[in-house]
Amino acid sequence: MRLIVNFLKSKNVIAGSFYLIGNLFNKAIAFLTVPIFTRLMSTSDYGIVNTYMSWVSILSLVVGLSLGNSIRSAYMDFKEDLDGYISSIFFLALLNFVVSSTVIILIAYYFLEQVDIILVVLCLVQSFMTFVINTITIKYMLAMEYIKKTLLLALPNIVIVILSVVFLLNMDSYKYLGRIVPYVAVLSILGTFYLVKFFVVGKNFIKKTYWSYAIGLSIPLILHGLSVNILRTSDRTMITVFQSASETGIYSLVYNLSMVALVVTTSLESVWIPWFNKKMQNNDKTIINKHVKMYIEIVLVAFLSLLMISPEVLIVMAPREYWVGIVLIAPILLGCFFMFLYSISVNLEFYYKSTKIIAINTIIAASLNLALNFAFIPLYGAMAAAITTVVAYVVSFGIHYCAARKLDNQLFPFKIYTKPILIMCIGVFISYLLIDYAIIRWSIALIGLLIYLFISLKRDGFVALLK
Fold first, then answer.
1. DSSP assignment letter at 60
2. 251 CB burial (10 A radius; 0-12, 13-18, 19+)
């Protein structure tokens, strides 16, 4: 009983619970509104929106110079003046946004006539505001301000969804704008609020010490971030180019469904990163190696459960024309699992401020992904995109792991990965074998989850992880 009480009182448990609830709430909103948006928009409109969102994630790195990621190190090095640091990098990012946006708009206007200039402007504005908000969420995560972070995750999405439905119900054409404009409007209001707030509180606009520190860490991370986004989004862009926006819409829906498993990953990582940094500062590497196994186990169980139930969820969530995407679920989920695994090594690289190594390794994986997509998507469409994503993430996991071991060979021996990888691959095989047997798959998911929960309650290791 005392163990349970201590577990529930742990600040990290409370924080993790808030993060999980917030992320689940966010995903629930996105998930439950899929039937609405897939019926209010054509597969083509749905594909355009997802391609646009892919460009937002890419341009947010360009216009924001990936400066927000430097907070992971600045939180330890400039903790006494963190608000000043944030206000300084916000001003630097704002200057870059004005310059880079001007260049991009001029290029689009004069040289890319087929591109809708309105979408370009909207994309740029949303990208910068996304950078601002992402920066604040990193600050909240490191400071364990879980309530603020959870609210920042959840509230804007509620408003965006409501506005999107209202817009779409009152539009007869260009319906993709009915989904995009609410994003731009809500994020702009929120991003502007945080910009003004930190300019007032931080009172630092131009400070060379902060700028040089942030740029030194962040410039490589721009390449890393762009490479990560290429890994995540180039497939959708190429499907649109080589196949159709309709097929992109189907692939995007399946991809978004598969990303639900990352709710658990994101929530746990929000607790894992500050915990990991603290243990590294105390040189508690034995404890880290012990508990990273449980960290991987929890994510593995989440992925396997989703793998078994996803076909029916997709059928319920979307019209019949999307059902052909069921066969894409397993490889996309497998790729996402390797994406999680490589993040463990990347967090170690971040701790040692090895951002150049992070960038180089991710560029290698992204380049491979681009080459494979270019070679196979024209021939095999969305299925090729799903498989090449798996290959790229496996390579990314391998090279980041090797780099992390060179930085610190006392952490993360390879044996901690072998069993989870084998089990996940077996799960993928079983999901295809039982693709037409829903009851068996759902039973496997339920029984496996209950067994894991029973075993977990019998051990107290995870309580120590959260202390």
1. H
2. buried
Q: How far apart are CA 19 and CA 144, in angstroms?
A: 10
290-315 burial string, b = 16+ CB within 10 Å, else e?
A: ebbebbbbbbbbbbbbbbbbbbeebe
- The amino acid sitting at 178 is G
pTM: 0.75
Question: Encoding tokens for residue 122?
Answer: 């909207």
CA distance 11 to 283: 21
First to last CA, the chain: 17
141-171 confidence digits (pLDDT tens): 777 777 777 788 778 888 998 899 898 888 8
- Between CA 324 and CA 328, with CA 325 as vertex, the angle to 5 degrees is 135
For 49, 54, 86, 125, 190, the CA distances from 164, given in Å and listed in that order, are: 12, 18, 32, 18, 17
CA 436 to centroid of chain Cα atoms: 31
Residue 364: which of 398, 414, 408 has the closest Cα?
398
- Higher pLDDT, residue 322 or 156: 156
